[in-house]
Amino acid sequence: MTAPDVVAPEEGALSSALTIADAQTALRDGTLTATGLLREAYATADAVDETLGIYLSRFDETAQAAAAAIDAAFAAGEDPGLLAGIPLGIKDIISTTEGETTAQSLVLDRAWGAGVGDAVVVSRLRAAGAVITGKLTTMEYATGVPDPTKPFPIPRNPWNTDYWTGGSSSGTGNGVAAGAILGGLGTDTGGSIRIPSAFCGITGLKATFGRVPKSGCVPLGYSLDNIGPMARSARDCAIMLNALAGYDASDACAVEVPTEDYLAGLDGDLSGLTIGLDRLLGKAPNRDPAVDAALDAVVDVLTGLGATVVEVELPLWQELNAATRITSRSEAFAYHAPDLRSRWGDYFSATRTGVGAAIAFTGADYVQAQRVRRVGQKAVAALFETVDLIITPTSSVAGWKIDELDSMADRFGSMHTGYWNALGNPALALPMGFSGQPRAGGLPLSLQIIGRPFTESLVLRAGDAYQRVTDWHLLTPAAADRSETAVVAS
Amino acid sequence: MHSIEEQFEKQLDQALESNGLTPLPEDRAALLKAFTTGREQAALVFSVAEARYEEPDLIFSASLS
């Protein structure tokens, strides 16, 4: 495939086609400096943020100091870490030392984040040398949809600003796509890393539940929440996961399973792998026909890389999606009930009605949902005895117009992510094509690659192999050109 | 005899009261719709026969490792 309008990386300048891997090399061979990279990243944000709604707050001063320290270390012949000098943003439900953590809400007590400081994941990124640029837009408390009556930015899709980014890691999605950051952290309770990755045309990983500590993050669903990397490529996600993964006792759900070097297996070879494909036909209320054509092309690519692709049917599809909804709503309500009683109107409309509707569930419903998750884990483990990986579309649609959003309840069935939160398996979303013409109103389509628990290496290997022979992930929206008039609106 | 819709409306009102919630009038339709969907989802998870003798994993990650 030849990609139209690809913006090639230029020496010393941030193009949104620049990957973390590219920048790592350029920083080490001296063709790029951390301060220069940060300056370009912020310049891009300056040009597009008012339109796209990427940042809630920026850390210009501390980021510049961090970048200067990285440059000084490189100049002294030191290697200051895996992510040294890489500008990364943080979804604003994850606590940082600088700035407020708001969860994009009027309700969250700002003292909470001030008391936490850096979340474990933020500390790990900093220890690897990352330059933390600021806090990125989300949906309120990582759920629901934008509410134009509340005083927060409405994130827009850089491929077509009439459309939503998807949520809830919205600013990480459109920030990476527009080139305002090279990567960032999202969170995923029912798809909030994978959906904005899909809609914005980038790559995002929900690792196995418990693989990445989630302490220091405002909870949504205690048994479903994941923090994970969002970036341009699977390789970039592997780089970030090398910094993020690993047990920490501060998270009661963290799992003490040894980590791996997630870059080590990225060899482009899928020989001998059997990949199960579930197209999820008939499983969504809406389906863009371009999804099926894109999946056919994916099968051709994976077969060409040496894999055998077989059709499979995921068990208990509706039941496990229901289990995710019951669990996430109930766990969120436990957290929000006191504030919903006293500050109902301060919440976004979709948040208060969505989380508030957890009153439909009984304690027995919640426990039964957990039992169904166990049944589902066993059934999917049996399926994984016959295949090494599973692929599905991440979503059956390419996106929704912002002015047509009402509540996520109506949209949930077209997104194929929540099933895997019920189970805990690692799942990678990556671009696989477009619905419509890129830069002419068209929107990205996304493939989801799922593995057995704790097989992030294999999932990333498959994603990287696919991206070695395709360039959907390197396409950039016109917003990345940094022209004030370049943002596409149909 | 009440219709299903009326029964759900009554259940919603009881649940709101018992949970101490006082939603805005404009939220009523969305709440009722979400409540109704919620009851359908609850019925769906109870339809899984294999779960009859399954034990839940209440520290979810325990079953993954």
UniProtKB/TrEMBL annotation, chain A:
Q: Which InterPro entries match?
A: Amidase, Amidase_dom, AS_sf
Q: Name one GO molecular function term.
A: catalytic activity
- Sorted alphabetically, which Pfam families does this protein's record hold? Amidase (PF01425)
Organism placement in taxonomy: Bacteria, Bacillati, Actinomycetota, Actinomycetes, Propionibacteriales
User: Source organism's superkingdom?
Assistant: Bacteria
Would you tell me the protein name for this molecule? Glutamyl-tRNA(Gln) amidotransferase subunit A
Record PANTHER family: AMIDASE AMID-RELATED (PTHR11895:SF176), TRANSAMIDASE (PTHR11895)
Query: Which residue intervals define the domain Amidase in the entry?
Result: 37-460
The transmembrane segments are none
Q: Which organism is it from?
A: Microlunatus endophyticus
From TrEMBL, chain B:
Q: Name the domain of life this protein comes from.
A: Bacteria
Entry protein name: Uncharacterized protein
